[in-house]
Amino acid sequence: MRVCLLGDFTGRPDEGMKNISRNIVDRLILRHHVLPCNIGNIFKKKYLNDIHLFQPEILHYLHGPTIRSLIILKLLKSFCGNKPKTIITAAKPFFSKYSRWVFRLFKPDLMLTQSNRFEHFFQLNGFCVKFFPNGVDGKKFVPPKESEKHHLKNYFGLLGDKKVVLHVGHIKANRNLAIFKEIQKLDHVQVVIVGGTTEKTDENIKKDLEKSGIKIFNKYFDDISKVYKFSDLYVFPVRDTGDKVPLSYNQIGAIDLPLSVMEAMASNLPVISTPFGALPRLFKAGDGLFYYDNEQELVPIIQQLSFTKKVSTRDKVMPYNWENILSRLEEIYQEIIL
Q1: In angstroms, what CA-CA distances link 77 with 54, 59, 84?
Q2: How far is CA 230 from the centre of its chain?
């Protein structure tokens, strides 16, 4: 197949949608004719010429969607003589109340959704929708040996016998990070937060967290799997808007299926999370996976986990390794071009 993938392939893949884009390109290019195009340069003459000469069967927009991405995809389809089928991955959708008046005019041939709320939203607005989750690299993210875990804790300056409670993600207001100050008060716990570098860090939040004793690594890791290997528990406190579609972009704290949770599960860490986005749709609680609604439940769950030995979160997530996800994507491509 001839597939033109539209996304952000610049810089380091330390942000959810960039990570997804890179994983799809790197794997799909081994099996098909693939043209990756950076959306920031999409209307430059060179890129348009490349797309025209490539003659794609599929135009797949990997980021968004927003009204801008819908319009771009519609224009590119027209530029290609309306021949390619158009697809958008709805990992982090946002439409303002004003754009919702017109966004139906720019419907792609297929919208790939993850959470129930956006699946229903797009269906109600006449979009053709299929469920399509993110993947995880089960070869990169693996449970550590005890000796490796001990070595990594020492290497990163995590001395002593405290349990490491980890969170990976941008340090900003909509990620509900203040709850970690309460977790840090537990005698047997050391909270570690690894902040992203793609989005601007909220320095006030960072300083407040550090003041409480939380250790923050605000940098890019070439191999982020090491962070999960030295950890004992992963906590994802980000909240979404429930069944309601967000009215403000600031309400969106993460992509609908957070990669960090999947990476923690692939590393076979116990995970405590809000019922965010697509997580409850794919993963039932149990075997080391816990969901909480009320923040007062969080600390008791962590105290309980100190005595929990049966953890098999890796078994839950491995059906969604990238190999299986890419096979499903190929099936979707075949279905849409026939």
Answers
A1: 13, 8, 6
A2: 21
Average pLDDT in the chain: 91
pLDDT tens, 117-153? 999 999 999 999 999 999 999 999 999 998 999 999 9
Q: Rounded CA gap, 108 and 141, in Å?
A: 34
Q: What type of residue sits at position 228?
A: Y
Checking if the pLDDT of 307 tops 70, the result is no
Please give the model's pTM, rounded to 2 decimal places: 0.94
How far is the C-alpha of 337 from the C-alpha of 83, rounded, in Å?
Answer: 10
